[in-house]
Structures
1.
Amino acid sequence: RRQRFVDKNGRCNVQHGNLGGESGRYLADLFTTLVDLKWRWNLLVFLLTYTVAWLVMASMWWGIAYLRGDLHRAHDGAYSPCVANVYNFPSAFLFFIETEATIGYGHRYITERCPEGIVLFLFQSLLGSVVDAFLIGCMFIKMSQPKKRAETLVFSRAAVVSQRDGKLCLMFRVGNLRNSHMVSAQIRCKLIKSRQTPEGEFLPLDQCELDVGFGTGADQLFLVSPLTICHEIDSRSPFFCLSKRSLRSEQFEIVVILEGIVETTGMTCQARTSYTEDEVLWGHRFLPVMSLEDGFFRVDYSQFHGTFEVPTPPYSVKE
């Protein structure tokens, strides 16, 4: 099977290995590292961090009560312990949870004759705020990531080559399945193809820009209905020498990148796909999907990927 640089669903088939000493950079940016983790590992870190922090802090409260002898004299009405009604580790754990969660049942409380307990209480408050801000912020950012929004941005399964306005063009279709719009949507295309320079240097997976209207502003999309993106094949195009016959022997990949701002959240969203040489149909055109009905336009997505053959010269633009 043809090895793709970018899958149809937008996942990049690139793995980084042999990082050596550079792997420590992941810990330097720990917040981003946690956000990038998969959900199962993210939840595991979330649970383990809170569990360990709770057990450690509860052990410190139990340790203070043990060192002061409060555990043996807790039931003495004339004795003033550090924390009232703390008899063992479970009661120390419950006191910590009541303090950390600001529940405050009133049965357990710190007395004024325990300076070490006051210091530990201040430390617990600061540490709890830091842990909450870090982990809850990480979970919030991960839940609000617009990756799922990209799944409702669809691309045609194949690209087509045919004539438009008397010029040979490479075209593909993009659509938005949601009623909410993509603000400032922009489309970009990259041609991924290995080549050898005149000096003999081999460039694997060399990236070349495909013009889809950058100079005219056609790359700025008003994506309220499916649009057909057009790349005009001219003397400046990498497909200047591409013909119907040479298409069978070529090996390339066209990576399409759609970026925009999600209207409901204001976050930037990116959707990607790719087309290999066997997914480029020469002499085809997309089926129409728009129809006018009573007071509105209807989009028929059942015809979104459909194409039909049209008369197209089999020669390249150079020929």
2.
Amino acid sequence: REEAAFHELVLRASDGGDPARTGTARIRVTVLDVNDNAPVFSQAEYTVRVPEDVPVGSTLVTITATDADDGLYGRVKYSIQKATEKASQIFLLDGNKGAITLLQSLDFEECNSYELNVQAHDGGALFDKTKVVVTVTDVNDNVPEISMRSALREISEDAPSGTVVALLHVRDRDSGANGEVRCSLDKDVPFRLEKSFDEYYRVVTARELDREQEAAFHELVLRASDGGDPARTGTARIRVTVLDVNDNAPVFSQAEYTVRVPEDVPVGSTLVTITATDADDGLYGRVKYS
């Protein structure tokens, strides 16, 4: 029937006269269909690549199978025969049209590939199978994360250069260039950023500190930028208080005080007030006279 659905025959009957006379009859033979053809998928395997930010409800791929039979035997319906529980929650197969749509958002970092075994069956008992592989591609949807493993909140101003102030770990859940992180520390601070190994960094003093000349505390801003386009940046802040040491002597306001007083000045009179200041803080900055 699939080669020819009907046949037209012409039957002729001729007598023995001279001239002969002929009669004709037409016979139309219609071939009735039986379910002798299984559905056939257009591809043995369907592979589709989609970015992880594809909108929910999008049609990812449409599978097609054809059946050479007619009527009920030629009507193809689709069903998922095998898939993980997660894939069953994420993808929806239209049993009549063969369209596979997205039910939930994809996350490359959670799973980057899904496999569905799909069957096409006709109105009888015949079927065909195919495999659908959905590959999820990464987009730069994660900001680099900076986590402090340890950090000094206070440091003495006489700490030697190279003293470790903080240890930190940096990571980006994206892959490829989107997950390649570069770290930096704001300039104009007496600290520098050094890479320890892999994704670990440390903040150390770049030189000797001077609480009196620079600042009593430093606000350090760490930045981690990935290689995406556009790049995404994560930040972290460390506030480091510089503790005072007694590295400054008191200094008089004058090297010598000269005062002239009459000889009959009353006992107990204030003749002069001398002043000295000390740049240090707290106990180290309290000046007494003797």
3.
Amino acid sequence: QQEKEDLKGKLKLREHLSQTVGKSEATPAPSKNIDLEKKQLQCKLKNSTAETTKQSTTIKSLKNEVQEKDIRIRELQAKISELERDLTLKRHLIEDLRSHLKANQENEKASNETLERLERKVKELAEDKKTSIDSLKQRFNVAMKEKSQYEQMYHKAKYELEKKDLKLTKLESKMTETECAMTDLEATASQQLHRLAKQSAQALETLQKELLLTSDKVEEFMTFVKTLTRELHHSVQELRTKIKLAKKMGGMKACKKGLSQECLQLAASILNVSTTDLYEILQEGDDEETAKTKMEFEKDKEWLQHIQKLLEAQFPFASYLMDAILEKLNEKKKLVEEYSSLMKHTV
């Protein structure tokens, strides 16, 4: 643009000189010196006109270059906008995954609280059952003591049989009543024991259903975490592949700059391969890149094993699992930034 402004200034100067020369031609010059000066000015005018034409051509070519660069800038801005939209979508996806994880953690906490409450109820029922059994045992012991006392009284009455026949009859009737009371007491105790056993069985069945529901929820959470880790692993691998391809494309462009097109075509014709295959041959043999790829594969394998160990570990493990997933997400974010930077430089 600065060269364009300079050329415009020079063009205006040339036009001014042309106008000045035209005015000088309009004035009559009776002397030969004036004619000579007129010819010189005409020559200068022709030179100025040629220079002006040349500068105009240059200005037109510069305008075309400026238009091409503007078009290129608009294309790059469109690509940047698209990448920003992708980044925004990925951030929203991460936020959704975090909210889902938080909801699952809250559900798990609620399930654990419900399980603890049911366990306390079972313990209370067992204690109540034990208390009832102890009470029945005490009552049975008391009844047995009474029976023993009545038997002693019976033996005493039998000892005095000849003297107290009437008392013996009364004692026998009392013994009959006591036995009836004992029978009723035993029947009542049996019914209470049966009812308590039925209630305990119902409580245990309800607890088993709750445990099965909790187990299903935990299984769903494990499936979700495994799917999330697989998707993260796959996404990171894809980004690494794209970065390697972008680096290779950059290397191919650098190779194009270092070698002339005629040399590359000559080498490709000698090797009987295409120019693109020749670029790939030039890029092969990078031992450092191979070692880096192997190290990344080992790290991914260790990360997946770490996630599996966390899922198989005892509670609580949510914070460790969150740290491991955030580590992979940060790695993915760095890879996305690196890939965006490579794509900008490549373009």
4.
Amino acid sequence: MKNTLAAKPDSAEDSHPLVHQVSNESRASIAESLSEFFDAQEVLLSASSSENEVSDDDSNISDISDNISMDNFSNETEIERPNSGSVEEGAVLCSRRSCLPTPSPTNNTISLWNILRNNIGKDLSKVTMPVHLNEPLNALQRLCEELEYSELLDRAAVTQDPFERMIYIATFVVSGYASSFYRTGGKPFNPVLGETYECDRPDKGFRFVAEQVSHHPPISACHAESKNFVFWQDVRCKNKFWGKSMEIVPVGTTHVTLPRFGDHYEWNKVTSCIHNILSGQRWIEHYGEISIKNSHSDVCQCKITFIK
């Protein structure tokens, strides 16, 4: 599809057509720019009748630039296509990375006093923090990490004893805090409103999707499905800065259903506190009580207490 619209020779009284204007500078670099970006082309409109007239030279240049852009697009597509994954017998094979491409920067020497001294006792979700404190992932991806031990839910889905099922559910709840000892140095990025994240784990048998549904206050919602369970939650956190420590109070409920037994488990999350925010070695502790209830049955309940 060409960008130049030719006017009919017999319609002299008709309005002038819209023409893609190409400057001399842009003509020289159009092939280079289009080889890097494959987005919609910019169309510059002009109301001047003299500028809307299309000469033979301009139309030829437009045709050449269109052909160059299409050739570059096809060549780049052919080059990049083998890198997307090898195909064997109609199946696309992909490998997951086991480590980050670069080591995380050291942020123990960052002084936050100039930023946080005027925000003691306030909600830190509205305070701009240095990017060095962020992990290379956002909060939506962090929610998916809670399903890293989803095999515990698979075990619960095939266990007949309701008490033993509750034990597996409680173990799964605690497993969400397994990585907190190694993650005290950074925080995930705050997603923008409407941002989504999807994760398909055929090795674990579940599909996950999350969305940022509110900006202020930040609220994230996620949903995961498997043949053995359904998992969903909404996460709202209240952050408080107390001088040398930061307290994170989650607000919301996490749900898991086991369709085979009709069980519907729901629980809350405990408070997390990060110490030595301004200086020294940061460490995190969790305290509070998690109450796991099965709304389908009153046979058993579970309470897990995290001690300071």
